[in-house]
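Notes, p. 3: input format for complexes.
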Amino acid sequence: MKDLVLQLEQNHFLTDEEFKLLLEDESDEVLSFLNERAAYVSKKTYGNKVYIRGLIEFTNYCRNDCYYCGIRRSNCNAERYRLTDEQILDCCETGYKLGFRTFVLQGGEDGFFSDEKIVGIIKKIKEIYPDCAVTLSIGERTHDSYKAFFAAGADRYLLRHETADSEHYRQLHPGNLSLENRMQCLYDLKKIGYQVGCGFMVGSPYQTTESIIKDLKFVKELKPHMVGIGPFIPHSSTPFKDYKQGGLKLTLRLLSIIRLMLPNVLLPATTALGTIDSEGREKGILAGANVVMPNLSPKNVRKKYLLYDNKICTGDEAAECILCMKRRMQSMGYEVVVSRGDYKEINGE
Ligand code: SAM
Ligand code: FES
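Output follows (349 residues plus FE2/S2 (inorganic) cluster):
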């Protein structure tokens, strides 16, 4: 099995059969080896630096009804909120002082935030903080909308594809959403010039090894700049409330596989990973991740942006979160840096 790991490191890909073997292997020894190789590859490009992104969860209104998601339209228990432009800018100000140089604006698909409003927010942030990157994570919009946001100064876009298996996609989403459109959005975003992030949940209901292999093939084909993966965690007010959460080991295995497939990709150790294991994010970095995304949202709305149960850091101030993160990273010999943390191209890729 270790041969397969080395082969993946060298060729950046495996056959379906080989991926299946590696994904279904259960030995801790192989997992440690995979994690070590991935951390080594990550260090070759990014050294011991961990990039931080300040996450601003600016609306939890959403017109979609994804079966897994705690802020889905049908969840009447969710207390809805929207941040004002001033509140968003306050988050950026706090974040900038704390050393953040990337702001990630994330939210449900909220019709209140028209293209004009989003363009206005991007322009304001870029005017005050020209040295910062703005990342959007606001779901599926038209090609023209994406172009307008890019022209206004948005640098990056996160849109997890969720699963690259169309039948699995239908099991996770209502019929009005399609994998085809989701993928088209990702290709459009890339063509427009964004640094693009796709990704998926690990251990989502009905996920199989075969569907994960499709995810890996899609990731390889899209060649995104970022890949966001984290465990699925059930939310008590969703149709998937009784499903099992995704596993730590499979998530770490996949982080490492993705690092070996795309050596210079930006790979977050996600909040969901930190939620299923108190040292999940540290373990993620040691498995090849190189990004963490502390929360910059105002403290009074944190508990309302609950995508899943028991989400961590919902009671902390931004300053506490970043201090805690710096300490956690230092304890493993890594360093949180003040930088935009852009994708590093190597040999034109
Ligand atoms: N609306 C935007 C979109 O669709 O991309 C961004 C917000 S959405 C809540 C961000 C991500 O949260 C989703 O892409 C999904 O992978 C993740 N997510 C939602 N519910 C989750 C759950 N129960 N467990 C883990 N991750 C979840
Ligand atoms: Fe829209 Fe989750 S259903 S953000």
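The chain is about 45% helix and 10% strand.
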